Amino acid sequence: MSHTISAPELRARVTRILEKAGSQQAEAAQVADNLVMANLSGHDSHGVGMVPRYVDAVLEGGLSPNTGVKVVLDTGAMLGLDGQQGYGQITGVQAMTLGIERARQHGSCIVALRRSHHLGRIGHFAEMAVAQGLVSLHFVNVISRPVVAPFGGGDGRFGTNPCCIGIPMGKQSPFILDFATSRVAQGKMRVAHNKGQRVPEGYLIDELGHPTTDPGVVVVPQSNGLLGALMTFGEHKGYGMAVACELLGGALTGGGTWHQQADNRRAVLNSMLTILIDPKTLGTQEDLARETQAFADWLRASPNAPGSQGVQLAGDAERAARIERERTGIWIDESTWSEIEAAQRKVGA
Length: 349
Hints:
With 349 residues, this protein is an alpha+beta fold. The protein has helices at 7-20, 25-40, 51-60, 88-106, 123-130, 186-195, 236-252, 279-282, 285-300, 316-328, 334-346, and strands spanning 3-5, 70-74, 78-82, 108-117, 135-143, 163-169, 172-179, 204-205, 211-212, 229-230, 269-277, 330-332. The strands form three sheets. Strands 2-3-4-11-5-6-7 form a seven-stranded mixed sheet, with helices on both faces. The longest helix has 19 residues, at 88-106.
């Protein structure tokens, strides 16, 4: 059966599992908090449903608990960091903390983080930056089984390669644009498959390259042992953005790109190029606050399209979801709950 569970109870449960998997209490609690925040934000694909995969990755040796970033380059306004296959919820925060400090000192900072385990919701890192009044840009690649087809291609060749942009907007809520360059995140297909749902046309191709609405084609091997693939958003435009994230997030950071046959390893490694800009140092802090407010007001003054609830900006939906789910609890489907319980048994939690 499915479960609706409060955020504090879910955090406690996940923390216990991660501790049993080898994490110290502080690390387990931070990872659990990050995962539950993804659920609260409406992104179940990046939430506690990842715990079973994390446990498997630890047991296989592809995820190293209690591991932080290693500084491999420091020129002041440029940092090269190695995540050493530690939890991305830990290494990503460490990288952002260092980068934010340098951006406040120098006006900007470029952070090249390589070889972190799954970073989770990239918007979390943009939220860290805008809370300090900084603009941030993030380009991420994925080293794991390739699940996204190139435009014109018939099988998976790279990952969901997210891009994220955070912009403070004065006294109003910040702009947090956080999206996979695939038409939809891989984790959302896992959630849909677990719920027994079909997905809209144009999201997927099956293992033979044909269009399908069955999310299971990218979750479980099909009869011939092959898997299908996600499509990029925006046809050739989204495909171009996906390649840019692979090259900037993977090649430029030193984390590497995907160019090999798929395997069954459960680890998900991310590398991320982050650019941080301080509008105060640039001399445009007041302009930014004034113009972002004016433009947001201009957009929201547009009359509602038929059937629409009106204009929103990136980040609005997540903030609304947090308020609602904190009040009503987080719904976990039966399959995901069973997978979490199985992971719990694997580590004796």
